Amino acid sequence: MRKEVYIKFERWLMLVMLIFAANSGYSQQNTIKVTGKVTDSGKAPLIGVSVVVKGGSTGTQTDTQGNFTLQVSPTATLVFTYVGFDAQELKVPTSGVLNVVMSGDRMLDQLVVVGYGTAKKKDLTGGLAVVGKEQLGMVSTPNLMDRLVGQVAGFNITTSNAAPGQDQSLLIRGENSLSANNSPLIVLDGIPYSGSLVDIDPNNVENLTVLKDASAVAIYGSRGSNGVILIQTKRGMAGKPTVSYRGQIGVAEPMQRIDVMGPNEYIRFQQDIGRLREGYTGDQLDPVAGNIISVTERGNYTKGITNDWQKYIFRKAITTDHQISISGGTEATKYMAAVAALKQDGVVYNSTLTRLNMTANIDQTFNKWLTIGVGTQFTQRSDGGVQPNIEHAIKQSPYGSYKDAAGYYVPEPMEYSLIVNPMRNVNADQDRINRNFFLSTYANIQLPLKGLSARTNFGYNYRSVFTGTYYGRDTFDGREQAGLVGGRASISNSHYNDYTWENILKYERQVGDHRFDATGLFSMQQTKSVSASQSAEGFVTDDTSYFMMNTAARNVTNTSSLSETALISYMGRLNYGYKGRYIATLTGRSDGASVFGINNKYAFFPSAAVAWHIGEESFLKNKVNWLGMLKLRLSYGANGNQAITPYRTLDRLYSSVKYIWGDGGTAVNTAYLAGDGVGNPNLKWETTYTGNIGIDFQIFNNRVSGSIDAYRSRTKDLLMTRTVPIMNGYSRIWDNVGETQNQGLELTLNTTNIDHKNFKWNSTVVFSFDRDKIIELRGDGLDDINNNWFIGKPLRVFYDYNMVGIWQRGDQFFYTDASGAQREVQTGAAPGSAKLQDVDGNGFINTRDRVIIGSKMPRYTASLANRLSYKNFYMSALATGTFGVWRDDNVANLGSWTFGITNYVHNANYWTPENPGATIVSPGYNNTFGHGFYKKVNYVQIKNITFGYRLNTGVARKLGLSGVDMNLSVNNLYTFSNIRQVLNYDNTWMASYPTARLLVFGLNVNF
């Protein structure tokens, strides 16, 4: 199917290019060829400047060197426009050469999207960050969020599962809620988007805006309580049609592997386990005569057969990504269309992602008062395949058996059921297909009253997911056993759709030194999600896979579900500015959500913000030469959170239990009220109150610029489950109890280190830290130990016994109690055991000695980006760092890792009588307290390094092209850390899907 699409698209593209070629050979009489270069005040070329004939439709854009060529009438006037600069109108000179220097402050006058409109950057009162094309292009991956890691202060992107096609966890300014969702709102082309960000082709994104403080997100009300990410896709521009090709081909491998014990080291380790745990001596420790390894392992040991299990599950993987786009238009009609195809193999066997994106945007101006735009995006994504078990591959014995004589995977290579063959189910059939259709439309209407306009937005999103899996007889789960026919199948289908309709009225007016901007909004949104699944076992043949579920012999099960939500909102916003120096924003929004009870469906959320351009005051302006801009921002406001599962306010009956009435009776369905099935009609909005103070600055002739923000938020009426006495007939209920606090600091610093004609060097430093804590839980001042929630402590913590050392020979293992009896200081303690901290000082270890080890959130994060260019060459590098985050120390937890029988890490410094100075407990340690092992982790990742070259414009034109850009980049080059034995530093588990190191060659061609 995909091949047919490629062939049809190729034929269509060739036809379009032939038409363009024919048109290019046609020239009008009485025209003049105008050429020139457009630069900024520093003589740097500006790329993509719109050059249009005034009053006409003829136009073009500047290329990568800032050059343009246009055939126009000798009497024409050209209009030059570029975001962040003042528009210029210039007559065509008789010489035909027109070089233009654009004026205006590119940074301060830059238009940024702020929600339901745009604003100049210098007029902003709220806290936000803009990520442009230059930053998005620094990382060459097909995942949009991967390109944002480390680019925005206070925006944390965690890739817990690094497999292709998996979504990341997104947090803006940390967590506020204990049980409700903490994810930010995604707005795509003005429409709230709840689909997977993996479906978005990053090459179609023009820019992103991250809204952070209460004032900036207030316009989105409850949906923006955890921050907002505004994604703007590329639109057409007036000018001749431009066809572009973007292609990448890359090869990936795991950034690092777990360095496990080799054959000889493994045998020594098993001998240490035998003597220290089992008390073996003499021949009992012999690999052949003893019992330190299994019978299968002994056979392979004798024959000298070993296996590198990570070699079987990991691989080098190829990625190809191609996009062809066409854009252009006139002053009345602007269009952009693109088709992209991605094929990304994962670095783990059987993992893959294929994605087809089709995008089309059109903007039509009918007259002075009406403009209509339509944008469509369709994505089909496939990422199925049963993958091997990574943990089992890492822990497998080098002497375990991989395949039998017939070529089948040995189910239990070590004869141990807890660590099985990681490949035993990889032959299963699995298809997972995701389809996503997204529609965004708008109509801008200029009303008869000056400054008054209306806009209506309508968005629709439809998504479907199909998963079909079949375990055949050549898999472990589908094998024939105990006389039962083999084969096991399951299918599931889910369908989701939502629509959003927004109506906006806006009034703008300038009266002398006073500027007014008022916005009113009415919005509604409705969602619907349905799903159905079926599973069964026992099929006559494997040939039918999961397609003939009705032929199953046994265990046929069916499930289905329905979920619907609705949201209705009213919003008002007023912006006021005086002399461009004093700016204020007032916002109020009322939201009603169906997920709440009849008593509290609506809530009102206000916010206010002010900004003061201190640098424009007479005591600073033109008196402090090194100061370009200095602005102070203050904001405070409330935002709600309704991100809970629907129907929590209603009583919910469950029917998953069947009863049999009488001997030989037929099983029938029943319904019952579960322990958490009682609804709460008084459930209401979780509300976050946030204050923010920020400073924006530009100094030293704008060579240094940036912003500093400090914030503090209090979240009240937390949506969380409260425990109640079981005598009520239920044990848990959703309620509004508890309070949390969150505060932090963010810094963004941009520097122009070198700005010469041929050589430029720019840097960006991003730093942020966030501190959260629980203020109150259920109103009784008590901690919730079962959930590890403690008043006055961070939201997510490790609560456990604290290991302070290792017991040694000669230590005092007993103490004398008040009655004179001898008792153990620590139950089961022996030389080589973990020594636990006696917190309460009573002389022995019990449950009261558990402490809060540390927070699972980083102390702070930072990143450094560098961009350099020399003539036509360019380079960029991005490094990100995470510091002070507590993680499970999987290496130290020897017992959990090995279960006393499996492989372990190479050169592990574990305790033996011969090695008393070890840092890891003895293989014989019996962890009677069931405690974990923890470590404060720091890591710095080289996220990307790119080298590129832009072909000289003259050479490109001789080839019939307008621009050629070639680059070579490497993603996830290396990680510096105080831990090594992990596959993914964003994941606490050592056997998670590994981060891939990707070497990519890219080619961008403009026709």
Verbal overview:
The chain has 1007 residues and is mainly beta. Strand 34 and strand 35 (704-716) form a beta hairpin. The longest helix has 23 residues, at 2-24. The two termini are 28 Å apart. Mean pLDDT is 89; it is low at 1-29.
How are the elements arranged and paired?
Layout: H1 2-24, E1 32-39, E2 50-53, E3 59-61, E4 67-72, E5 77-81, E6 88-91, E7 100-101, E8 111-113, E9 118-120, E10 128-131, H2 133-136, E11 155-158, E12 169-172, E13 185-188, E14 191-192, E15 205-211, H3 214-217, E16 228-233, E17 239-254, H4 263-278, H5 295-303, H6 309-313, E18 317-329, E19 333-345, E20 352-365, E21 370-382, H7 390-395, E22 429-446, E23 452-471, E24 488-511, E25 514-537, E26 554-578, E27 582-593, E28 602-613, E29 627-641, E30 653-654, E31 658-660, E32 667-669, E33 672-673, E34 686-699, E35 704-716, E36 719-723, E37 732-736, E38 739-755, E39 759-776, E40 797-800, E41 803-806, E42 814-816, E43 822-824, E44 834-836, E45 851-855, E46 860-870, E47 873-888, H8 894-898, E48 934-950, H9 953-958, E49 963-977, E50 996-1006
Parallel strand pairs: 1-7, 13-16
Antiparallel strand pairs: 1-4, 2-3, 2-5, 5-6, 8-9, 10-15, 11-12, 13-14, 15-16, 17-18, 17-50, 18-19, 19-20, 20-21, 21-22, 22-23, 23-24, 24-25, 25-26, 26-27, 27-28, 28-29, 29-34, 30-33, 31-32, 34-35, 35-38, 36-37, 38-39, 39-46, 40-45, 41-44, 42-43, 46-47, 47-48, 48-49, 49-50
Q: What is the molecular shape?
A: globular
Give Rg in angstroms: 32 Å
State the separation between the terminal residues, measured CA to CA: 28 Å
User: Which regions contain 5 or more consecutive residues with pLDDT less than 50?
Assistant: 1-29
User: In percent, how much strand structure appears in the residues?
Assistant: over 45%
Largest sheet: 22 strands, antiparallel, barrel
Strand tally is 50
| Proportion in helices | under 10%
Work out the helix count: 9
Compute the average pLDDT.
89
Structural class: mainly beta
